[in-house]
């Protein structure tokens, strides 16, 4: 997390977040601070609770893993505050999103243009996800896949794999990173052909190289285009 994010958590009156994320920052939450946590799927309820607490003139921190503006809580908090018609000031504090955290463990696969796509179809129709996958693959972006697979949701990654193989060579470098920046972190560099052989879950980030991505001293590198002969 950024120093600013850490400061906000350490100086909060109220901390609101998904229970797993609250556990991750438990050591930063001072005694006496009110903690409102819950399960996935209750994001709107947590946003409403945060607004209510802010109206009591309390310093409220709503936490997300990574960056709150990338598949995080920033949007829903802003929407709820506007819907409630209250004048609560909302500051979005940036963090380090999984895309850049994972990329740093693999080398430099995102030095050129890239696209970030979530394979979770809980809030986004699969047809739209599929359309975005095809467009990004055809445009030769490096592609970062969030939320690739869970115990009960394995089909999306298989479908994404099939789409990518239509536009990328089977030998395209692919990075698979679990728990980026957390305890238990593990990074693997493989190929697109062997992607489905990797252990993948919801705390895994997948980075698929573009047509120029190569392995340099065991690290993924997508060249920016510099002339190295000079």
Structure keywords:
230 residues; alpha/beta; Cobalt-precorrin-4 Transmethylase, domain 1; Methyltransferase, Cobalt-precorrin-4 Transmethylase, Domain 2; 2 domains; 5-stranded mixed sheet; 7 helices
Could you characterize the architecture of this molecule?
The protein is α/β, with parallel strands linked by helices and 230 residues long. It has two domains: 3-84, Cobalt-precorrin-4 Transmethylase, domain 1; 98-221, Methyltransferase, Cobalt-precorrin-4 Transmethylase, Domain 2 (2-Layer Sandwich). Helix content is 31%, strand content 21%. The chain contains seven helices and eleven strands. Helix 6 (126-138) links the parallel strand 5 and strand 6 (142-146). Helix 3 crosses helix 4 and helix 6 (126-138) runs parallel beside helix 7 (155-167). It is elongated, with a radius of gyration of 19 Å. The model has no long low-confidence stretch (mean pLDDT 95).
Quickly give the structural class: alpha/beta
CATH superfamily of the largest domain: Tetrapyrrole methylase, C-terminal domain
Low-confidence sequence ranges: none
Q: Supply the number of helical segments.
A: 7
Major sheet characteristics? 5 strands, mixed
Q: What is the overall pLDDT average?
A: 95
Number of domains: 2
Indicate the CATH class of the largest domain: Alpha Beta
Approximate shape: elongated
Instruction: List the helices and strands in order.
Output: HEHEHEHHEEHEHEEEEE
- Quaternary state of this entry equals single chain
Helix content: 25-40%
Question: What is the CATH fold-level name of the largest domain?
Answer: Methyltransferase, Cobalt-precorrin-4 Transmethylase, Domain 2
Distance between the termini: 38 Å
Counted beta strands: 11
């Amino acid at each position: 997390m950024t120093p600013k994010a850490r400061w906000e958590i350490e100086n909060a009156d109220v901390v609101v977040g998904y229970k797993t994320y609250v556990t991750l920052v438990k050591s930063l939450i001072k005694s006496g601070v009110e903690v409102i946590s819950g399960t996935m799927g209750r994001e709107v309820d947590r946003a409403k609770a945060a607004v209510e607490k802010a109206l009591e003139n309390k310093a409220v921190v709503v936490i997300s893993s990574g960056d709150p503006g990338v598949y995080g809580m920033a949007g829903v908090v802003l929407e709820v505050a506007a819907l409630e018609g209250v004048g609560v000031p909302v500051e979005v504090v940036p963090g380090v999103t999984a895309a850049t955290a994972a990329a740093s463990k693999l080398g430099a696969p995102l030095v050129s243009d890239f696209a970030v796509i979530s394979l979770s179809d809980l809030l986004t129709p699969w047809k739209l996800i599929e359309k975005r996958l095809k467009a990004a693959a055809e445009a030769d972006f490096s592609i970062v896949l969030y939320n690739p697979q869970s115990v009960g949701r394995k089909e999306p990654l298989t479908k994404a794999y099939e789409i990518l193989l239509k536009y990328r060579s089977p030998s395209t470098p692919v990075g698979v990173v679990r728990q980026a920046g957390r305890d238990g972190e593990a990074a693997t560099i493989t190929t697109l052909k062997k992607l489905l052989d990797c252990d993948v879950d919801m705390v895994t980030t997948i980075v698929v190289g573009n047509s120029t991505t190569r392995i340099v001293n065991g690290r993924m590198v997508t060249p920016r285009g510099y002339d190295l002969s000079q």
